[in-house]
Design a protein that fits this description.
449 residues, globular, alpha/beta, Immunoglobulin-like, TIM Barrel, 16 strands, binds alpha-D-galactopyranose
């Protein structure tokens, strides 16, 4: 179930609560680690550290709203297959084990079933989380005598079909992983890839009841990416099953330029790691790609790290706010069986999720960026804007914009809703806040009714 779009409040409200808004839990923590490595992964480039300081081109959201002829947006609108097969009309939401377990022993069917249980029990299913996805190492390293994939005997003794049935019984969906290569990315010992086995593997996934495939890029033998990803797309189509198709080639071949109509989402960067520098670098790489995202075809800046312990709650709120403003897939990457209250509160914030899941499917655009003070605005289906005031710096900052700069029409008064404080205010046009170090104030703004 998807959350409904936030209803804009209609009451008259007191002015200026926002003007001095402070996010709770302000704090600055040094990144847990400077390394951008992910357990079990040695072959994938991390987010380009240089990108952390690269300026992002500022886009005027008013002009960006109308795609110019020949622009990526116009191409998307003209593409015969957009929005395609009706899948992933909003960014996929769910869970993936990789960021918390890698190929560790705690990745097994008990974990997967436990996550499905928590989705239901803790209201996350109700908030929109749907896919429970298995990453690398779910299979034995060798195929069987018929060339079939074999579920890992220790991790998945009941087999994948049984896990899919369990997840489906809860009204959720199951995702799986393999690589568009001869072997997956993990080498110790990892599992076979699908290159040359596309139809057989896709058939096997469909027979098990798989609803989502993440298709990685390791050991690709130099076969052109587009060819490899289109071959799997055709194999998935041939199964006749609705399978969301996640292209994971780390942005190496600019998939945003060709993958709409091939996959429903494509990674735009190397792997995220659970530290501020990594998250920030990935955000900056993904922000300029806004024109390429839309219903059925999303930029994927990688899975969430919220709750994994390497960032402060303030930083995790920024991570979650910015992923939502960027209409990114929201795949929880922490082991929810150990999640604390703050983690569940962040991931379960329906007002922020509604920004991500908005039916218009626009990725937010940078309005301004000055000295680490960022304003990013996302056009919403009801005519409002979600506006992120994001403080990249290590000191508290005052960040300001106006409703018209954020892309809204001129009006005498605007309703302003703080999506973290859950507070309403009104404004005559100024949108501003005092934002703690590494924090984000996220508001939803529309002309007062
Ligand atoms: C690559 C992907 C990661 C993860 C690992 C698994 O690094 O980018 O998201 O799937 O492989 O080995």
């Amino acid at each position: 179930m998807r959350p409904t779009v936030l209803r804009r409040a209609t009451r008259k409200r007191l002015v200026s609560a926002l003007g001095t808004a402070l996010l709770c839990g302000a704090g600055l923590a040094a990144p847990a680690s400077a390394a951008n490595s992910v357990p079990g992964t040695d072959s994938v480039p991390a987010a380009n550290p240089a990108a952390v300081t690269n300026p992002v081109p500022v886009v005027n959201p008013e002009t960006a709203a109308t795609p110019a002829a020949g622009s990526p947006q116009a191409d998307r609108q003209a593409a015969p297959h957009a929005p395609g097969d009706g899948l992933a009309l909003t960014p996929p939401m769910g869970f993936n084990n990789w960021n918390s377990t890698g190929c560790g022993p705690e990745f097994n069917e008990e974990m997967v079933k436990g996550i499905a249980d928590i989705f239901v029990e803790k209201g996350l299913k109700d908030a929109g989380y749907e896919y429970v996805n298995l990453d690398d190492c779910w299979a034995e390293p060798q195929r069987d005598g018929d060339g079939k994939l074999v579920p890992h005997h220790e991790r998945f003794p009941s087999g994948i079909k049984a896990v899919a049935d369990y997840v489906h019984d809860k009204g959720l969906k199951l995702g799986i992983y393999t690589s568009a290569g001869t072997h997956t990315c993990n080498n110790s010992p990892g599992m076979p890839g699908a290159l040359g086995h596309e139809e057989s593997d896709a058939r096997q996934f469909a027979d098990w009841g798989v609803d989502y495939l993440k298709y990685d890029n390791c050991n690709n033998q130099g076969v052109p990416a587009r060819e490899r990803y289109e071959t799997m797309r055709a194999a998935l189509e041939k199964t006749g099953r609705d399978i969301v198709y996640s292209i994971c080639e780390w942005g190496e071949n600019k998939p945003w330029e060709w993958a709409a109509g091939v996959g429903h989402l494509w990674r735009t960067t190397g792997d995220i790691a659970d530290n501020w520098g990594s998250m920030l670098g990935i955000m900056k790489q993904n922000l300029p790609l806004a024109p390429y995202a839309g219903p059925g075809h999303w930029n994927d800046p990688d899975m969430l790290e919220v709750g994994n312990g390497g960032m402060t709650d303030t930083e995790y709120r920024t991570h979650f706010s910015m992923w939502s403003v960027m209409a990114a897939p929201l795949l929880i990457g922490s082991d929810l069986r150990e999640a604390d209250g703050a983690t569940l509160e962040i991931l379960g914030n329906k007002e922020v999720v509604a920004v991500d899941q908005d039916a218009l499917g626009k990725q937010g655009e940078v309005v301004s960026q000055d000295g680490g003070r960022w304003v990013v605005s996302k056009e919403m289906a009801d005519g409002s804007r979600a506006v992120a005031l994001f403080n990249e710096t290590g000191q508290e900052q005052s960040i300001a914009t106006t409703a018209t700069e954020a892309g809204l029409p001129q009006a005498d008064s605007y309703d302003v809703r703080d999506l973290w404080k859950h507070q309403d205010s009104t404004s005559t046009g100024e949108i501003s806040a005092t934002v703690p170090a590494h924090g984000t104030v996220l508001v939803r703004v529309g002309p007062a009714e």
